[in-house]
Each structure stands twice: as structure tokens, then as C-alpha cells.
Design brief:
Strand content: under 5%
Helix content: 55-70%
Radius of gyration: 21 Å
Length: 65
């Protein structure tokens, strides 16, 4: 599966689980809420900043280049 297909699948799963977030007595189901939070954390959001891997460079190496 491609990355886009996996994201679409996570979005669909999140939507389905949202229907089961509350049981018949309108109490929140902790097990479903935990799964929903894990999916939300895994999905990229527009406000999320991507962390880039960086390397330190010595000053002497930079001036020699």
C-alpha cells in the first residue's frame, strides 16, 4: 500500500470508530477513545511541524570547504 492509501485507511478507521465512541448509556468508551487518540497522533496534521534530521558540523570543517 502506498503512503496515501494508508492515510486514507486510517482516516476511514477513525471515522468508523468515532461512531462507537459512546455506548448506549452515552458514557465514553475508554478503549475506543484510546485508539482514536493513537490514530489522531499518527495522522499528519497541517499544524504539525516535520522534524528534520540534522548533523552538527565543526567550524574548522566548514571553513575548509
Amino acid at each position: 500500500m502506498s503512503h496515501e492509501e494508508l492515510l486514507a485507511l486510517l482516516n476511514r478507521a477513525r471515522t468508523v470508530l468515532d461512531r462507537y465512541l459512546f455506548d448506549d448509556s452515552e458514557a465514553i468508551r475508554d478503549d475506543v477513545a484510546q485508539i482514536c487518540m493513537a490514530i489522531d497522533d499518527a495522522l499528519p496534521s497541517e499544524g504539525r511541524v516535520e522534524v528534520k534530521n540534522t548533523e552538527l558540523e565543526r567550524v574548522s570543517q566548514r571553513s575548509a570547504a
